Every structure is written in C-alpha cells, then in structure tokens.
Amino acid sequence: MQSNLLLLLISITAIAISSTTSATTIGVTYSNPAPIYGSVPISPEKIAAKVVAMNIQAVRLLDSNPEMIRAFAGTNVAIFLSIPNPMVPLLASNLSFASLWVYHNVFAFYPRTKISVISVGDDVISSYSPDDPPLFLLRAMQNVQKSLENLGIFKISVSTTFSFSSIVPKAFPPSSAQFEQGNGEAIIRPILQFLERTNSSFMIKIDPYQMYRSSSSITIGFAIFETSRFNFREDLATGVRYHNLFDMMVDAVISSMAVMGHENIPVIVAETGWPSSGIDAGEIDATPYYSGQFLRSLIGHLRRGSGTPLRKGGPSEVYIFELVDKYDPEQPVTSRNWGILDHSLTDKYQLLGLKDSETIFAILLTVLEIFFYLALFMIASHRFIGWYIRRNDPPRPIRRHVRRN
C-alpha cells in the first residue's frame, strides 16, 4: 500500500514538472521610444536592468544597436536580433557585407550576450507587390547563416519575420487557411525548406487587435480571452472549437505550413499585443483595461502549456509588443501605445508571469522536484530495508501444533 502511494506521488510530480517546463518562452520587443522634449534618453543599461528585474526570459531588439546588445552581456536573457529591411538586399548581394554585419553585431558579443535567433528583415514582402516579390530574401538569409558558420557559430538560428495580414488572406476556418498564392510559392515555400534544413523557426507577427477591428463577426470577448460558454468559434471541417482569437490565428499559420508539407517547423510569434491607447476617439477598445486583460490572459494561457488545437506545445516563443510606450500620453500621437511600461519605466499592469509570480513559479517547481526525489529515496529505502531483513533474518521453521486427544 505504501509503495502504491509513493508511485502515485511520483507520477503526479513528474506530470507537474513536465507540464511546467514545456511552457512557451515569453519575451518582449524593444525599440527606442520617441524622444520627449526635455527628457533624458533611456540608457541601454537601464533597459537591461529593468528586463532582468521583471524576470523576462527573452527580448526581441527591433533596433540591432550594439550598445543595447552589449548591455545584456552576462544576463540570462535570450536576445532576438532583427536586421533592418534596408540592409536585406545588401546582405543578399554581398557575402562580405553579411559577414561584416555578423562580426560587428553578433561575434563581438556572443556568447556573453545570449543571442539565440536572427531575423533577416521584418515583414519585407509587404513592401513589394506579388508581381515583383523580393526573391533576394532567401539569399540574404543564406548569407547570414554562412557568415555565422564561417565564424564558428552554430547555435544561433536564422529566419525572417512575416506579418499574418501579409501572408494569410483568410484566418477562419483555420483548417482551410493557406498562404497567399503569389508570395506563398515564390517566397515562403523555399524559405520553409531552408528553415526545415537548418532546424530554424517560422516567425510570424500576430495582431488580434487589428483582426478584431477588421471583422464584425469577432467579439471583444473572443479577442481578449474572456471565458464564456458561448464564447467560441467552431471549425466545422474539423469540429474543433476555438475559445480565443490568438489560437485561431496561430493554427491558421500551422495549417498554411501543412499545405506546403512543413507543418512540424516550430513557430515563433515575433510580435503580439493590444494597444492601451488609439490614434483617435473611435478606437474605443484601445484602452488600458482591454490591453491589461488581453496580456494577463495571454500570459496565463501560455504558462499553462496547453498549446493550440493543432499544435500541442503551441508556439515555442511569444514576444509581447512592446516593452516601453513609444509616445508621451500628454502629447498628441500619430500612432498607438502598446507598451507594458510607460516612458518612466513604470509598470502599467501587473502581468502574471513576468514579475513576482515568475519567482513563485520557480519556487513551486523546486518544491515539486524535491518531493519527486524524496519519493524516489523513500521507495529505494523501503525496498533496501526489506531486502536486508530478508537476507539477515532467515525464515524460522514453522511449528506445527499436534492436537492431543
């Protein structure tokens, strides 16, 4: 009976440990905010210290600033570098230029700075028409990959970032989704082959807010993860029910990759979020309340590790857009604010999974591991004691009582 209880404890603990360690890596994007008159620019060291203090696992640097890359040296924060779009044609046409960029932005800091992935461009194809696709994009990726290998760096993956709205014309139902025909064949198929061959990830920017605004059939509750018995959309082809817009969009990407025979490539959501302020008064859903609700629910969803209906583990990494507000809320703006921090680096929300709860999560995991090894020790001790007793205390002869008349 005791052994059975211990085995049950081990099974529960092992399941708990495996489910917590398989959760998606959650990071943030960062680019230099717009300057505010009379204010001092935020130093790279201050940004890095804030990221570490918030226990953020990874940062996507939209501006590959060498000073910012250096600021993360010696930390355990994974760095996702992005190469600006104007450089991409030069990288494609000149291997020496690619080698020079890699030397100055990667080799000079790696491995002290934990660079994990490089995106060659950001939504490059949106600047070109389907009749004139950027065929140079794959060559640029290959040159960056070759430059890394020539410098003896083999653990940094190379990819490029696409925007959902640029390559997936129809998100619902996800099972019927496929990449836009022109760019799909000319650009995306060869890139998928490159990613498969190099064990790299397909990177996509997902914007639930814009999808919600452009479709009257999507409710605000479905977009921000609100739980309700009627809050779902059913894919009639598969019978799968989707309870949030984020999973639906991720699975549309996975279905599109499957059409091209590459459904097993890992997916990184390079950007997602919800704005806390809009461009005009008509954006009534761009508020701190909805933004906080979306971000807290998204992080909780990813932490549970339940994945999506088509991808058990879900995306391997998700980057929240973005770390710091671009614009001063006291001044007129021409774009939305998406930051989880304001210009003074003050938290706008208490986000589960990015601050104190991350420490609690780590403590819980440690406690579960202690219980796991303690249970193993108890079983081993129990069996050893039983074996020792049997070995040193041979069974006594059975005395038979003879009944006398």
UniProtKB/TrEMBL annotation:
SUPFAM superfamilies assigned to the protein according to its UniProt record, in alphabetical order: (Trans)glycosidases (SSF51445)
InterPro entries for this protein: GH, Glyco_hydro_17, Glyco_hydro_17_plant
Annotated EC: 3.2.1.39
Short name of any one Pfam family annotated for the protein: Glyco_hydro_17
GO biological process: carbohydrate metabolic process
Signal peptide extent: 1-23
Enzyme class: hydrolase
Transmembrane segments: 360-381
PROSITE patterns: GLYCOSYL_HYDROL_F17
Catalytic activity annotation: Hydrolysis of (1->3)-beta-D-glucosidic linkages in (1->3)-beta-D-glucans
Molecular functions per Gene Ontology: glucan endo-1,3-beta-D-glucosidase activity
Protein keywords: Glycosidase, Hydrolase, Membrane, Signal, Transmembrane, Transmembrane helix
UniProt record similarity statement: Belongs to the glycosyl hydrolase 17 family.
Protein name per its UniProtKB record: glucan endo-1,3-beta-D-glucosidase
Organism this protein belongs to: Eutrema salsugineum (Saltwater cress)
Native organism taxonomy: Eukaryota, Viridiplantae, Streptophyta, Embryophyta, Tracheophyta
